[in-house]
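On clarity, I found the account of how folds are encoded harder to follow than it need be. Since the whole study asks how a given chain folds, the encoding of that fold should be made plain. For illustration, here is how one protein appears when written out as sequence plus structure tokens:

:::
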Amino acid sequence: MASHRRPKQPSRTRVTVLTTAAAAAVVLSANAANAAPSEKPTVDDVKSKVDKLYEQAEQATEKYNGAKEKQEKLQKEIDTLQDNVARGQSDLNDLRDGLGSMATAQYRTGGIDPSVQLFLSADPDDYLDKASTMDQLSNQQVETLKKVQEKQRSLAQQRAEASEKLKDLADTRTELAKKKTEVQGKLADAQKLLNTLTAAEKAALDAKQAQASATAQTAATSGSTAPASGRASSAYGAAQSRLGSPYVYGASGPSSFDCSGLTSWAYAQAGMTIPRTSQAQANAGTRIYSQSDLQVGDLVIFYGDLHHVGFYAGNGQVLHAPRSGTVVRYESINNMPFQFGVRI
């Protein structure tokens, strides 16, 4: 006869664990259902982050401008040195040809002078050091050999200088590429943030900035601040003629600008060359530390590292190329940390 066994009952411990797990699952499910969706950043939050990225991009831009200016200067110096070396080598060849002609003439008249023969087969520096042979040379030969010696020394020095500058140029190009990548990265990050805004939010931001610029322009043009000088007035007038031109990093006109590109271009139109970067422009004239002493056409330097510059427009306003995504416009001087003015 078959035996019948009662099914084994689950242990008290196992029941407790299963019950607890089920209860936890219910609680988690309820919490997930009731959890508020992640909040979208406000327009002000996005604007604050974008402004910070643009500021960092401009810092890198001014370093980029400095490296670019250095690169151009080095290239000009190298070109000049290489031209001088080429001309010097040509002169040296002419001098040697002249000595060769002397040797030919001496050979035809009875043989080559031993001293000239020595020169033609050895280093003239070594030869001239042998004073005992000097009396074997004619005055013309002595002068020619001295010129050869001087030319060789000059060429060696210029070649060494060109070589050092070429190394410096290579380093500068590397720095230039690095800063360009940094600027582009910051601008890309800023654009990603801006893309999180709706079309209406973007339009509202643009309208707010346009209104602020219009208000600043009215304030500037209604003021009675005198220009710093005739040259400053001309430069400021040139900058005014570029109102609405887009900001482009590394640009210095005439159709687009970055901050120091606008100021250097404007002064060039007034017949004056000033440095390219904002940091260098900060040292290009007399510093004016009180805003009340500023005059129209003075440069105005902002931020502790001096990475932004514009023109003082009068009545507490500046005319400048602010940052990527904007145009040359008027703005309150109090929108940025003022450091000092510079009167060119």
Remarks:
- The two ends are 118 Å apart (CA to CA).
- The chain is about 60% helix and 10% strand.
- The mean pLDDT is 81.
- Residues 43-108 form the longest helix (66 residues).
